[in-house]
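Module 6 notes. Inverse folding takes a fixed backbone as the condition and produces residue identities as the prediction. Think of it as a translation problem where the source language is geometry and the target language is the twenty amino acids. Below is one complete input and output pair. Work through it position by position during the lab.
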């Protein structure tokens, strides 16, 4: 008979019926323990609901509850932590990872400690808890230094952890070199799961170094490997990160496809902690492609779907995007990349076939209050020396067409709201509140330790 040792914790998940059938058939005995590591009941006793979480202790009937060791208890807490992490309950996940950490012993559990610290750093990053995250990073640094002296030979897992530590510290070039060593050694050591994690880490590293082509290459390699080893969370993280890379490369249709694939894989795994990031990512794609209304729908849905207290980083990202496309104080939202303008009362105006008008608008809007006469407009817009026979009518007609497009109808006879004509030429109203799309592209909520929730541990 096999003993299954479980810690008692108030979780609400479906039981593992294969394990329960083994209990019913007398093939397994479950020992439940409370948070003080005391046995409280065995299978078949009392009315406790059985939740099949934990691990197989060993195939031995003779292990009494009082001899369950700290290592086994730590593994149970670790599994509970991972479960809560996937289910978006970062508070309970953190609590269980800390308990798992307290059950570890060096040097036996060194790599396990680094995994636990990895989860704790990601949770602190999401909660924007700087001091806590930096404490865990320093602990990881000490452990990695000790590993260098303790290991007879440096293996793939060692280099993976060093690369991750370098990433925490923002040293992306050193991180890349260590990840490449992990990549090489994990192949030599026949460690496909570690190879998969390393490939994703290399892709993230390429993204951090703005080398998106290299990032995509590693992601394609990872995709091929995951067809063999079937790791759902890694697959979900891969699709999610692929979508982010494709978004940066302006490949919007493919990015949306990969966000949907990420969502599908993660939902199959019943993993909810990245759902808000999928919605945010889709919103960003629609924003970048100029569909502001649809982008706002996704941002608002993401806002409604998350716990703002726990997911503080994600919440900040969402609020930033909502403010960017839905600020009621903004009169004109100018997107030169997609050749679209959003006027507060008119809505979105397409400038795809109005290149000259767009150039005039951006010239004036980027320099509000500065007047441009006919000579300057001819030179700046048409790249030509001013000729009244050619340019007078051309300038007048172009500005008139531009005004008709962007100026809201006004029955009160007020002066032009945006483009003003004076004795010195044309200017853009400096009192109009405008925003240029893509200028906030690099502004993101802080990521403590340069690690996101979806990064592999």
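Target side of the pair, the amino acids:
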């Amino acid at each position: 008979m096999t003993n299954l040792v479980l810690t008692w914790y108030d979780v609400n998940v479906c039981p593992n019926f294969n394990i329960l059938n083994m209990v019913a058939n007398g093939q397994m005995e479950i020992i439940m323990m409370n948070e003080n590591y005391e046995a409280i009941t065995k299978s078949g006793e009392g009315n406790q609901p059985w939740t099949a979480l934990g691990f197989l202790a060993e195939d031995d009937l003779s292990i009494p509850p009082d001899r369950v060791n700290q290592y086994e208890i730590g593994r149970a807490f670790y599994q509970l932590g991972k479960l809560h992490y996937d289910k978006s309950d970062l508070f309970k996940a953190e609590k269980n990872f800390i308990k798992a950490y307290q059950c570890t012993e060096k040097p036996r559990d060194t790599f396990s400690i680094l995994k636990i610290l990895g989860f704790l750093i990601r949770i602190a990053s999401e909660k924007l808890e700087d001091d806590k995250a930096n404490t865990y990073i320093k602990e990881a640094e000490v452990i990695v230094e000790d590993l260098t002296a303790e290991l007879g030979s440096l293996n793939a897992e060692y280099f993976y952890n060093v690369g991750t530590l370098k990433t925490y510290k923002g040293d992306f070039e050193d991180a890349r070199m260590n990840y490449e060593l992990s990549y090489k050694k994990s192949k030599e050591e026949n460690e496909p799961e570690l190879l998969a994690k390393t490939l994703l880490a290399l892709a993230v590293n390429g993204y951090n170094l703005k080398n998106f082509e290299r990032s995509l290459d590693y992601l394609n390699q990872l995709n091929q490997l995951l067809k063999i080893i079937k790791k759902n969370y890694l697959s979900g993280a891969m699709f999610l990160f692929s979508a982010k890379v494709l978004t940066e490369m302006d490949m919007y249709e493919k990015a949306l496809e990969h966000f949907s694939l990420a969502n599908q894989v993660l939902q199959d795994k019943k993993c909810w902690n990245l759902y808000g990031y999928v919605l945010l990512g889709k919103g960003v794609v629609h924003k970048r492609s100029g569909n502001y209304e649809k982008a706002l729908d996704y941002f608002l849905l993401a806002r409604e779907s998350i716990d703002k207290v726990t997911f503080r980083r994600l919440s900040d990202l969402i609020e930033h995007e909502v403010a960017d496309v839905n600020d009621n104080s903004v009169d004109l939202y100018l997107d030169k990349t997609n050749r679209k303008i959003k006027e507060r009362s008119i809505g979105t105006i397409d400038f795809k076939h109005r290149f000259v008008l767009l150039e005039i608008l951006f010239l004036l809007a980027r320099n509000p209050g500065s007047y441009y006469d006919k000579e300057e407009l001819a030179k700046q817009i048409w790249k030509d020396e001013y000729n009244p026979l050619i340019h007078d009518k051309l300038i007048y007609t172009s500005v008139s067409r531009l005004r008709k497009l962007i100026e809201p109808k006004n029955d009160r006879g007020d002066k032009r709201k945006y483009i003003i004509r004076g004795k010195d030429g044309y200017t853009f109203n400096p009192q109009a509140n405008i925003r240029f799309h893509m200028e906030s592209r690099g502004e993101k909520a802080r990521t403590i330790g340069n690690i996101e929730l979806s990064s592999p541990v």
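Reference fact for the lab report: Strands lie at 2-7, 28-33, 39-42, 55-56, 332-335, 340-343, 347-350, 419-422, 425-428, 434-436.
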